[in-house]
Amino acid sequence: MTNHLYVENSIPAFSREAPFSNVLTDLQTKGWSVQDDFFSTDFTQALMDEVENIHIAYMQQAGVGRKQDHQVVLDTRRDYIQWIDPDKPIKKDFLKMMEDLRVALNRRLFLGLFDYEAHFARYETGAFYEKHIDAFKGESNRILSTVLYLNEGWQEGEGGELVIYDENDPTIEIGRFYPKKGRLAVFLSECFYHEVVVANRTRHSIAGWFRINNTTSMTLDPDQ
Per-residue pLDDT tens for 96-152? Predict the structure, then answer.
């Protein structure tokens, strides 16, 4: 456990001058993108420091479904989560950077994204998440899914890989990515089935979703 004091805006967040360019091009051409070293090493480490210091008692067993359909199903997923609110400098800066990405996505791809929600995820040894899709067409406000990996020194063979399946044939695997520190995956929520392979050591990440606003005169559309 570490207790480094993070000061807001004290660390350059990105590792390159045009951090969104490759993500935008990939999404436009194939609907998914995996980028290494998306954030700077120090910024990624500050996020890792934050999640490592969350006691398990302050995390919740993750479930499936949203709102009134939410339920814990241990045969499907076994991770623990804590939703990210802008109540600490590092979390505030992370959400700011993802807001910048939201604006860039709307300008380039005209997605009409309204906001972004995210949570820290902890997969302890033996945890997994079976093949699933984040949004069913016409039934969800989640448009783009994101996963940022925070683990130090993860090695191939330690499990915990993200597996992405072909949008036209979800039996075909198109990519398998181990949770390398600083690696960001982004994909269309309605199109790509994916799973998290059983982890052989504790695995930390941030899972998030860019959303449209489905609020109507009759129904509010809260996040999370």
Answer: 999 999 999 999 999 999 999 999 999 999 999 999 999 877 667 899 999 999 999
Looking up tokens 């998030």 gives 208
> Which two structure tokens, joined as six digits, stand for 106?
């709307």
Q: How far apart (Å, rounded) are the C-alpha atoms in residues 169 and 176?
A: 16
3-state secondary structure of 195: strand
Tokens of 3: 């207790």
**199 bridge partner residues:** 159
- Quickly tell me which residue has 């993802």 as its tokens: 98
Distance of alpha carbon 125 from alpha carbon 158, whole angstroms: 10
Crossing angle between the packed helical segments 89-109 and 41-52, to the nearest 10 degrees = 120
For the entire predicted model, the pTM comes to 0.88
131 touches 192 (CB < 8 A): no
The residues near 70 (Cβ < 8 Å, ≥ 6 apart) are: 63, 64
Taking the alpha carbons at both ends of the chain, their separation in whole angstroms is: 28
